[in-house]
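Here is the promised in-class demo. Please do not try to memorize the tokens; focus on the logic of going from shape to residues.
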């Protein structure tokens, strides 16, 4: 056949017929439809879970390891009751002048004076703080005898001065040591002890207030300053109905201004009930009732808590259970059939919901018991 004839044949037959669409496109349409159906089915299944709840007690919730866990602990749970208290200092007292003259020096408010230190000055002469339980009342000189001699010699010995015997007799050896002491503190070296130049206290004192100013005149028995010890305490007017919550020696928690927490020990519990007073010292018009005085000595005050006086909250133990298994309250889950459980993490990392019986709730923890729950069991907690 010639080329022309083949061309004519092509012209007579017309354009070639369109080839059928590839089968691949039809399979794609089927796949999309199938995905839509699967998605609808998945959503329906999810809705069923939301309606009917989570897994039953003992159900395996999957092998994906949880991101936050804790262990069941054996501990003591304590329920506490908050009562009002007032932060301050223990050992309130006052210092009075022993001499006539002009006040020439005073310590700063809040200063702590240790035994052997200068308490204040009159006419340029210091009054020295000494450790003792009774005030000086006479001039001590060689030949004097008595308990006040022993008290002074003991105080002098504690400051590091020696060469004499601590006893009831003021000897020449005592006088020699006194001269050394007088030279060191800036007093005339007479060897005799003028009661106007010493002040006895049980220990260090803290200046809480001043009754005179530098440059003012003072006279014997006139108030010079008010003092406290340097021990931080909380005074609690405890209602009589709460008396059974505390005993001397109990440990308590104290919430300070600003949210800081300190621990303390009950050092005294009053035995005399009295009418509760208001902040101004008068009877409480709010019907506060009858109270006993409780004093709490703070073990350690957080750095920055420099309040001389402030209202605080004291948390007393009202109920306690010992030797129980406990977890954070957040570890509890609600089971579909009712009750509570925890999500236990097995050794293989799988998580199983286990029903538990709850007991005491306290301090963000809850007592639990149940099959397989023991000390050290790992459970899931929310992040």
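The designed amino acids, position by position:
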């Amino acid at each position: 056949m010639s080329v022309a004839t083949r061309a004519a044949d092509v012209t007579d037959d017309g354009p070639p017929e369109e080839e059928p669409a590839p089968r691949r496109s039809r399979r794609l349409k089927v796949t999309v439809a199938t995905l839509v159906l699967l998605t609808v089915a998945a959503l329906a299944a999810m809705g069923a879970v939301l309606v009917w709840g989570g897994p039953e007690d003992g159900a395996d919730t999957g092998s994906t390891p949880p991101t936050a866990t804790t262990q069941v602990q054996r501990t003591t749970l304590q329920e506490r009751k908050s009562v009002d208290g007032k932060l301050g200092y223990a050992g309130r007292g006052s210092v009075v002048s022993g001499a006539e003259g002009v006040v020439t020096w005073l310590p700063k408010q809040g200063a702590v004076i240790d035994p052997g230190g200068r308490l204040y000055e009159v006419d340029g002469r210091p009054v020295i703080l000494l450790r003792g339980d009774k005030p000086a009342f006479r001039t001590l000189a060689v030949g004097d005898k008595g308990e006040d001699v022993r008290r002074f010699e003991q105080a002098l010995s504690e400051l590091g001065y020696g060469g004499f015997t601590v006893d009831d007799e003021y000897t020449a050896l005592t006088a020699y040591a006194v001269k050394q002491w007088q030279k060191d503190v800036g007093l005339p070296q007479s060897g005799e002890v003028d009661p106007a130049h010493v002040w006895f206290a049980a220990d260090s004192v803290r200046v809480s207030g001043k009754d005179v100013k530098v440059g003012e005149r003072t006279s014997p028995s006139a108030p010079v300053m008010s003092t406290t010890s340097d021990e931080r305490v909380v005074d609690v007017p405890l209602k009589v109905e709460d008396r059974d919550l505390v005993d001397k020696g109990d440990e308590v928690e104290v919430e300070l201004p600003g949210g800081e927490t300190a621990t303390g020990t009950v050092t005294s519990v009053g035995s005399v009930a009295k009418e509760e007073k208001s902040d101004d010292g008068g009877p409480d018009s709010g019907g506060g009732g009858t109270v006993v005085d409780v004093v709490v000595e703070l073990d350690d005050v957080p750095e920055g808590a420099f309040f001389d006086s402030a209202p605080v909250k004291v948390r007393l133990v009202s109920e306690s259970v010992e030797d129980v298994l406990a977890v954070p309250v957040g570890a509890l889950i609600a089971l579909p059939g009712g009750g509570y459980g925890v999500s236990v993490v097995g050794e293989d990392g799988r998580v199983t919901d286990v029903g538990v019986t709850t007991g005491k709730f306290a301090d963000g923890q809850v007592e639990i018991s149940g099959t397989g729950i023991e000390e050290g069991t790992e459970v899931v907690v929310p992040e």
